[in-house]
Write a structure and sequence with these properties.
The complex is a heterodimer. By secondary structure, chain A is mainly beta. Chain A contains 3 helices and 49 strands. Chain B is mostly beta strands. Chain B has an 8-stranded mixed beta sheet, with no helix packed on it. A 5-stranded mixed beta sheet of chain B has the order 1-12-11-14-17, with no helix packed on it. In chain B, a hairpin with a 4-residue loop joins β3 and β4. Chain B is globular, with a radius of gyration of 16 Å. Classes of the chains: A mainly beta, B mainly beta. At the A-B interface, α1, β3, β33, β34 and β39 of A face α1, β2, β3, β4 and β6 of B.
């Protein structure tokens, strides 16, 4: 959705240029500062609610300062949810908004002074809450909110001036009261634009029609905003960011659309702070080419395309001489160097082809053939659930276009085979399935000791049966021919290999956990009423043997597929047949920082006592200084662990979620809440 | 056309706002068929949120289930739907991108769920489906890939009936139990409500590509079986 904000922001710029009456671009953002939304008894939201979501359709502005101005009166200017993502509304998570604003949309509207703003929610389904367990309401399952407020309008104290030919933020703060139960009385107020961080800069050698500057969360391909340039090459972006006390928010930036890429990595943006000036970004001249091809299963070959694979193109930021110039030189943790910026993302269709066709401009169709100085090739990461992620080189070919010399396909075309092994096993009930229906069990495989899920599948236990089988592709362990050379893992290579090889990232061990897909009152539930069972430290399948080349008079257009691995690790998971019911827990984290703090919930492998991570707090959901966290899960004993920036910050603390008072099959009891440990 | 239009299912793959954006539907659209009575409102799904986020959906009605791989945004429509229905959508990326699932009943958003969690799961359903049905057989799908911002109507037919629908592109149209689950021909006639680019549509049966249109104009037909 954020990407759409960027696209529409660009659209807004076009509109304002075309308007003779004068328009300005308004960039609407939402926030919900800590304490602005409380429960009916003035408690913090996370102590009583797991999630609070509002279904926002539009924001309306009117010059009138009469809050009773008719709904259908003249002069309303409507800013709709960005439609190019395919929906008529955006679901706002108020828990995350307390820490980091959310960019809703940016559009061009008439330049004048507005007196009031209105928030329009979906009339049928204005919002959803997930309460924690309580005696008053069934917890841990979504319920529609009942609004007690007729109109969500607010006055601008001194009017809101939209100035012609400029982009200006409009921050709307959402507060009010939630509860008792599902009733909600939201209140909106025009917020302080300093909740956003300002980024400025100047681009040289640009094209006003095609050049744009894109901001994305650092180290990700998650585009937050994009903008075109003013006539003098300058630009400004208002971005969601934490303030200085929260450490700000890190962004990557890149200039694209005309000539070569210019990237800036890991830039710190502060709300309520001085603007970040990216200074002059000089675009080198370059022709543009395209990268396209297909992605296949390496065990089968071109007859088995991989649908939904993701391809990300990386360019290194070389402004610091200490930075690597090769993004396929992984860190010791097997991650891409932090100075590398994603400048384009593509996905495969059901036939394995990328980029997707359509009228939305695809970054892979406009890739500069000239790379930044000192950079010999782009790095292209190809990943798909269940497959080993691989990094391939993209370089200027013998002709004008771009080639993939490490892919192994004829003509260095940019098609790829992804390797994998299989993980097989069984899910067994403590007694036969007497529910009368098939039990569907979701089995997840994640990197051992982490919360990084690699793949999932379903095991089905038919009525009357006790055991369900599963099998799923997962990344294999130590790679085969595509071995990670030690020089590729750490530090720049002293003497680059004359024969470039791709980098394949292995996974050595897995944790596996199983979650029964339950119904409650006929409705599908995210949180199972059955206990979650886990198995820790399962050895990854070995890599596939390297195929023996077959003598042939004509070279093959694609590499020979590897023989599929037959030696697969087997996993046995035991699930109690009876429903345990759900429970919830909330607690606090001391010294929480929304940008870095998270809490993970772990179950246990009953055979060896090893913890297996099964859930985590949502990004930006833990506020400072209150530090509340919460979980919903089947009533059982777990551990909760405080993490900072992805690493444990404290020892795991045990917590037992209280069981419902009654738990007849199938799962009809009320859940109970637990006050959890302070971390 | 293989047979007479026995029933008409106006399957909405868009929200009311999108309707307004198209200035309504003109004569000749599959959604204005004259006096043919509509069947009960049908369900469809929209997976929306951060563009390009990969997902895997397991969808089931009372007869058949399907696994759909895709990226946001994608519409999923079951033709010849046999309610109740149930869907589980799992985000296939370890990041904080938004994935929202909209279950659309007729023209209204019935339920809505979203996640920003790593490999987060969202669920929805229409009436009570106790368990997912066996995998569809035959598994007949029309995959409408482009133009990505377009809106289309379609008539999906087997040898005995036709179903009209409307949806946004990209979309996956799942044809449940065509020809009563037996052998027979199917076809799809697709028409853009307003020309937004060239059609790009595949027809697959049990995973095999049996017909494809790339660079198609305002109206195209695919056949197979």
């Amino acid at each position: 959705m954020l990407a759409v904000v960027g696209i529409l922001l660009l659209g807004g710029s076009r509109s304002q240029a075309a308007s003779s009456r004068g328009k300005g671009v308004v960039q609407v953002a939402f926030n919900s500062p800590p304490g602005s939304l409380t429960t009916a008894d003035r408690a913090a939201i996370p102590t009583e609610y797991r999630r609070v979501l509002l279904n926002v359709v539009a924001v309306r502005l009117n010059a009138s300062s009469d809050l009773e101005f008719p709904d259908r009166g003249k002069g309303w200017v409507q800013i709709l949810a960005p439609a190019s993502a395919g929906s008529s509304l955006v679901q706002l998570d108020l828990e995350a908004l307390q820490n980091l604003p959310f960019l809703f949309n940016a559009v061009s509207i008439p330049a004048k002074t507005y007196g009031q703003v209105e928030l329009v929610l979906n009339s049928v389904n204005p919002g959803i809450v997930v309460p924690l367990c309580s005696s008053a309401i069934e917890g841990c399952m979504p319920k529609s909110v009942t609004l007690t407020t007729n109109k969500l309008r607010a006055l601008f104290t001194d009017g809101y001036d939209v100035t012609r030919n400029t982009t200006q933020p409009l921050v709307i703060s959402i507060g009010g009261t939630l509860g008792p139960g599902t009733s909600m009385a939201p209140v909106i107020t025009p917020g302080d634009s300093s909740a956003l961080g300002l980024v400025t800069g100047t681009v040289t050698n640009f094209n006003l029609k095609t050049t744009k500057v894109t901001a994305e969360f650092s180290g990700t391909n998650q585009i937050v905003a994009a903008t075109k340039l003013q006539k003098d090459g300058t630009f400004s972006l208002n971005l969601p960011a934490l303030d200085a006390s929260g450490g700000g928010t890190f962004y990557d930036f890149y200039v694209s659309g005309n000539g070569g890429y210019v990237v800036r990595s890991h830039q710190q943006v502060f709300a309520s702070g001085p603007p970040l000036d990216l200074l002059t970004l000089a675009v080198p001249s370059s022709k543009l080419s395209s990268i396209n091809g297909a992605v296949y299963d390496g065990c089968v070959g071109t007859t088995k395309p991989i649908e939904g694979a993701t391809l990300q193109l990386f360019v290194p930021d070389t402004t610091d001489p200490a930075n690597t110039t090769d993004c396929d030189h992984l860190t010791p943790e097997l991650t891409i160097p932090s100075n590398c910026v994603v400048v384009g993302t593509a996905n495969t269709d059901q036939l394995g082809f990328y980029p997707l066709l359509g009228s939305i401009p695809q970054a892979f169709n406009r890739v500069p053939t000239t790379l930044p100085s000192d950079v010999t090739h782009y790095a292209l990461e190809i990943s798909a659930p269940g497959y080993n992620t691989t990094l391939q080189q993209v370089a200027k070919g013998t002709h004008a276009g771009l080639n993939c010399p490490t892919a192994g396909f004829k003509g260095d075309t940019c098609s790829f085979n992804l390797e994998h092994g299989y993980l097989e096993g069984t899910v067994a009930l403590s007694r036969s399935n007497d529910t009368g229906n098939t039990l569907d069990v979701m089995v997840n495989a994640e990197d051992s000791g982490t919360n990084k899920i690699e793949n999932f599948t379903f095991a089905r236990i038919p009525a009357g049966e006790t055991v369900g089988k599963f099998s799923m592709p997962v990344p294999h362990g130590t790679p085969g021919a595509a071995t990670i050379a030690s020089s590729e893992i750490s530090g720049p290579s002293a003497s680059p290999s004359s024969t470039p090889t791709p980098v394949t990232i292995p996974v050595n061990r897995y944790d596996v956990f199983a979650v029964v897909q339950d119904l409650f009152g006929g409705t599908s539930q995210k949180i199972s009423g059955h206990l979650i069972t886990a198995a820790a430290g399962i050895a990854a399948p070995p890599p596939s043997p390297t195929p023996t080349p077959t003598p042939s008079s004509t070279p093959s257009s694609s590499p020979s597929p590897r023989a599929c691995v037959t030696a697969t690790p087997s996993v046995s998971l035991s699930v109690l047949a009876d429903c345990a019911g759900q429970g919830s827990v909330y607690g606090t984290v001391s010294g929480a920082n929304p940008a870095t703090t998270s809490v993970r919930l772990s179950g246990t492998d009953e055979t060896n006592g090893t913890p297996v991570q099964i859930d985590q707090t949502q990004p930006n959901s833990i506020a400072s200084p209150s530090g509340f966290y919460n979980f919903c899960a089947p009533a059982d004993t777990y551990t909760v662990t405080h993490y900072e920036s992805g690493s444990p910050a404290a020892s795991p603390a045990p917590v037992t979620l209280a069981a419902p008072s009654t738990t007849p099959t199938p799962c009809t009891g009320s859940c109970r809440n637990t006050v959890g440990p302070s971390l | 056309m293989l047979g007479s239009v026995r029933s008409l299912a106006v399957i909405a793959g868009l929200a009311i706002m999108a309707l307004c954006g198209c200035n309504g539907f003109g004569a000749g659209q599959a959604t204005t068929p004259g006096s043919t009575p509509n069947i009960a409102q049908q369900t469809s799904y929209r997976v929306v949120g951060d563009l390009g986020t990969p997902f895997r959906a397991l969808i089931s009605d009372s007869r058949s289930s399907w696994q759909v791989f895709g990226t946001i945004p994608t519409s999923i429509v079951i033709v010849n739907d046999s309610p109740p229905d149930r869907i589980v959508v799992t985000k296939m990326s370890n990041d904080s991108r938004l994935l929202s699932l909209e279950l659309i009943l007729g023209f209204s958003i019935g339920t809505l769920d979203s996640t920003v969690s790593k490999f987060g799961t969202v669920v929805a359903g229409f009436r009570k489906l106790p368990a997912f049905a066996p995998a569809a057989s035959p598994d007949v799908r029309f995959v409408v890939k482009g133009p990505t911002t377009g809106l289309f109507t379609a008539l999906i037919e087997d040898e005995t009936m036709g179903n009209a629908l409307m949806s946004r592109i990209p979309a996956v149209v799942l044809f449940d139990s065509p020809n009563g689950g037996g052998a027979g021909r199917v076809d799809g006639i697709f028409h853009q409500v307003s020309f937004a680019g060239l059609f790009d549509i595949d027809l697959t049966i049990d995973g095999r590509l049996v017909d494809s249109v790339t660079g198609g104009g305002l109206s195209v037909t695919l056949k197979g079986g």
